[in-house]
Amino acid sequence: RKTYDVCIIGAGPHGLAVLSAHCSPSTVVSDAASSIADKNEYSNKKTRPDQNAFSVCVVDPNGGWLHEWDARLSALDIKCLRSPMMASTRIPPPLTSLDALAHPDVYDQEALLRYAEMHGRLGELHKPDFTCSCLKGEPMLEAGMFDVPSSSLFLDFCRDLAATLPHDFVAARVESVRKLPGGEYHLGMSDAYPLVQARRVVCALGLPGQPNIPSHFQHACWKCDAPERCIYHTSQCDKFDQISEGENVVVVGGGLSAAQGALLAVKRGAKRTVMCSRRSLTTRQFDIPLPWLHNAHGRKLRYDFYRVEEHDRLDWIDRVRGGGSIPQEYMDQLEAARAEGKLELLVDDIEGLQGESDECPLAESNDSVTMLVKTRAHGTINATRLILATGSKIECMSIPLCKHLVEEFGLPVQSGLPVLSNDLQWGDEQIFVVGTLAMRQRYGAPGVSLFTLVNGVTRPGQSKLYQVNECFVSRVWARLLDD
Questions:
Q1: Cα 66 to Cα 206: distance, rounded to the nearest angstrom
Q2: By the 8 A CB rule, do 235 and 211 touch?
Q3: pLDDT of residue 39
Q4: Upstream peptide bond of 94 is cis (omega within 30 degrees of 0)
Q5: SS3 at position 311
Q6: What backbone phi and psi angles, to 5 degrees, belong to 34?
Q7: For the segment 388-436, what is each residue's pLDDT rounded down to a tens digit?
Q8: What is the rounded distance in angstroms from the CA atom of residue 408 to the CA atom of residue 63?
């Protein structure tokens, strides 16, 4: 039995960012970050906390850092991330600078860049073309901080970073959290793991919620036996290795996941690949408009964000993001595949599956499944595999652990998300939430990609611990660590 100061549930990028904020070696921020701070009279140079000051435990059932990220990147053959290494804008006093990092070293905005240089991997940093955008001439653009890292570079950086941070890793699933008479929290683990107790609990649970399954596909998905291998959502990354040569693949959706699924089917030699979206494909480098990254425009946009009532922020974020979008690099690949006759891009509504049987509109023969995908304007499409890139519904109560916490401690939930304080504290318990579940309280760009990684563990406040926006750790650090 051991009692930790902090227990982080989840070993993804946000969990690693929290660990980094708590356990990084005691050094000042990078020279570049310090020079940026020196230009702002409201900024103060900060040091990292003493890595031996407290104990941290990380719990994840996969037994290693970024396991799910690695699996998804490999399954969809994603060579490059969408998020930039760092994007910085200025906001008025008393706040200082807002830095959104696409890597989890929260104290050093140049850490990933230096890592690439140190290991001779600068060639894995890709430069998007912003010459005709509002970002032209931005200092951070010229410094290369909008460069996009390769997937392998990002994963290697994260694992090497985690190896330098003192913590205990528990390969188990947290199934329950109970409060003990002394105020500590007992974490009930799967696999009969030895008892773990913590004074504070941080939930870094990744992308929450259930996949969005269009109503006209739900019957086939749940009533038939065959769809398990021929109809699946892009969140089921373990299914993509089943795509084989000679298949007819239909991808439903118009965002980046749809593009990745369609290109993977083409690469695997599908006989026919159709990507069908309800609206014309939209090209955008990041999942938010570029003005959010602009020095001047960003101030106004963030001011507007804070003027929105908290309960209306999710709808506001959806409007800003404007639905799915695809970076130009992927759009070029889609167009090239279409020009070679390997891909069809349709703008249409899919109305469901058409078949002879109302009970199961699928036909099976010789270990293969055939279905007719009915569209509004293009008739029916013969398919052997249907990939739904239709997003997910954010709903914390669909996560067993969150549901348990709500029932055990009476924690508040609104519109599918935890109701958090400015410190990202959930209710009156010493339970904190970071990542997508903290979207409503997160300050900065309204996206869910790694672009807002640091914002996923941060929140504006009156003081500043490191050279990013006023953050989760800066305001609750003492509360998390002080007995």
A1: 10
A2: yes
A3: 37
A4: yes
A5: helix
A6: -65, -40
A7: 999 888 889 989 999 999 999 999 998 888 998 878 899 999 999 988 8
A8: 27
